[in-house]
Structures are given as C-alpha cells and as structure tokens.
Amino acid sequence: MNSKLITQHSKFSNVRFGRLLDWLYPPRCRFCGDSILGRDDCFCFRCGERIRLVTHPLCSACGRPFLDTGGDDHLCGSCLVRRPHFVRARAWACYPTEDGDDHPLREVVQRFKYGRKVSLGKPLGRLMAIGCRGSLPERNLNLIVPVPLHPKRLRWRGFNQSAILAREVSSQWNLPIDPFVLLRSRETPPQTQLAEEERRRNVRRAFSLNPEKSIEGKTILLIDDVYTSGATVNECSRALMRGGAREVYVLTLARTV
Ligand SMILES: [Zn+2]
Ligand SMILES: [Zn+2]
C-alpha cells in the first residue's frame, strides 16, 4: 500500500472509530446532558441559544460590545482615556454576571475552573478558536502565551485553565504555544470581588518576562478564560511589550459586558 492510501485508510478508520464511540457513548451537552450531534460540540441547540455571542459594533481596542446594533466599531470611553497595552482584545461570548439563574456558559466555565473538570477545556477552547476566526490578524501572530497562574494557585488547582484553552487555540490555528514566557512574580488576591481601579492596582507588576525566553519582535496572542476589567491581560501585555514584543493581541473565551 502506498503512503497516500495508508493515510486515506487511517482517516477512514478514524471516522469509523468516531462513529463507534458516538454509538457507544452518545455525546452530551456539557450543561444539561441532552444528547448532541457532534463529539466536539459543547452545548446542545437549546443551551447554545441562551448564550449571547459578542457581536459588532464593538470597541476596536478592548472589544466591549456596544448596545446599539448599528454603526461601525470605535473606541469605547475607557480606551479613549487610557489606551491598553494590547492592540485588540476579542472574546467569543458575553459572560453572564447576574447571580441566581443557572446559565449554561457560566456554569460550565465554573465547573471547568473550580470543579476541576479539565476535560471541558478542549470543547471550550474549540468554541473560542472557531468562533473568533477572522477577528484577529492570524497570519501575523507568531506565538500563543497563556496568562500564567501563581505557582501556589497552580498547585492548589492542579492546572492552568488559560493554558488548556490556549493549547486548543494553538492546535486549531496552527500556532506555536509557550506557557512559560510569562511569570507571575507576585501572588495577588482573586479579582472577583474588586472594583475596576482596585483590580488595576491589585495586578500591577504582578507579571514579568521569563529571563530565559526571548520574544523580541514577536507578535503575541495572549489567552485568558474571562475578560472582566481587562486589568490582568493589560498588565501581561505591558510585561510582554517591555520584553520586546512587537504587538500583543488578546483572545478570551468570554467577557463581561
Ligand atoms: Zn444543553
Ligand atoms: Zn474599549
């Protein structure tokens, strides 16, 4: 058998193996458990409909969607006052912040992060990689860098959720990834309870460039799970730009609105 035939044959067996797996273990919605069509899908149609995607018009820098549905992208008030250290941030969906209702996206992200369901990282990473195709200059990007966790928190959680999402984006976009470029030099309290100005102060100089790495002249894609005030990714971008990066772009799974 020549090599082309072997490749075709193995592709065919992979498809057949996938179908066998679907028959043995039908893929299920990661939120409600209903059966779904594709093995790589994350949500069923009904749960997917409850997730609001980030749509234009939005802030041309931080990616905040504007409420009015018409018009072009432009800078938002906060980016006009203080331009971020990254060129552009984009997110796949709006992260629901109201407590009380169990929202598919928030619930699944929390199971992934705090419930240590590492297996959710791949389908979530796929959603952001496929959903945000074309929103960033993919061809100019040289390297993917996930937002690092402090070693103490990494030990406690056992994995870095941003690195897992970044690995999936790296394989979908065919870009190299290096999770050791940035170091979290200072442990910071969780940002969740802090106001915007406090968040900025909280993460100031919390990140530094690993002295063993060179990113001179590289265009970096920084990846995090949820964009809230942007303080964390902005501080990481500052460290990357100081370390010689040409430009920094940011991609997150979701963002608060
Ligand atoms: Zn569902
Ligand atoms: Zn903005």
Describe the protein in words.
The protein has 257 residues and is an alpha/beta fold. Strand 5 (219-227), helix 9 (231-242) and strand 6 form a beta-alpha-beta unit. The N and C termini lie far apart (56 Å). It contains nine helices and six strands, in the order αααβααβααβαββαβ. Helix 5 (121-131) crosses helix 7 (161-173). It has helices at residues 3-24, 45-49, 77-81, 104-113, 121-131, 151-157, 161-173, 196-203, 231-242, and strands at residues 88-94, 143-146, 182-184, 207-209, 219-227, 247-255. The model has no long low-confidence stretch (mean pLDDT 90). The protein is globular, with a radius of gyration of 19 Å. The strands form two sheets. The chain has a four-stranded parallel β-sheet with strand order 1-6-5-2. A two-stranded antiparallel sheet has the order 3-4. Bound molecules: zinc ion (2 copies).
CATH class of the domain at 94-255: Alpha Beta
Rg (CA only): 19 Å
The second-level CATH architecture of the domain at 94-255 is: 3-Layer(aba) Sandwich
Total strand segments:
6
> Main beta sheet, described?
4 strands, parallel
- The secondary-structure element order is HHHEHHEHHEHEEHE
What would the average pLDDT be, to the nearest integer?
Answer: 90
Helix coverage percent: 25-40%
Ions and ligands = zinc ion
Q: Per DSSP, what share of the residues sits in E-state strands of 2 or more residues?
A: 5-15%
Shape: globular
Distance between the termini: 56 Å
| Overall SS class | alpha/beta
Assembly state (oligomeric): single chain
